Amino acid sequence: MKFNKAITQCGIDGKIDFWGRADRHAIKALKINEPLRRIAPDHWNDYKTDWLTNSYLNTINTGVFGIPDNNLLFRSFSCIRPGRAGYCNLHANRIQAMQ
Length: 99
What we know:
By secondary structure, this protein is an alpha+beta fold. It has helices spanning 2-13, 28-32, 94-97, and strands at 18-22, 37-39, 48-50, 55-58, 63-66, 75-77, 87-92.
């Protein structure tokens, strides 16, 4: 959870630029056709990253892994504004994230 809080804070502060697709469709084909947009830093005041939508638990070695090459379901969500669409298919500026 510390990592998730740090990523969210970097988004709020504008230290890491994020992009995503508006998460307003239940059908994958419609989601992927949404344009990839830069997410404004103020979005992260009410939204958090949902790591569970893009990871799985390996019960053999009890590790948690991301799903490679498929982050369509990786999304932002809000506990404050339930039912309001955030973004899916999240991307971060890798150079900024490595600093």
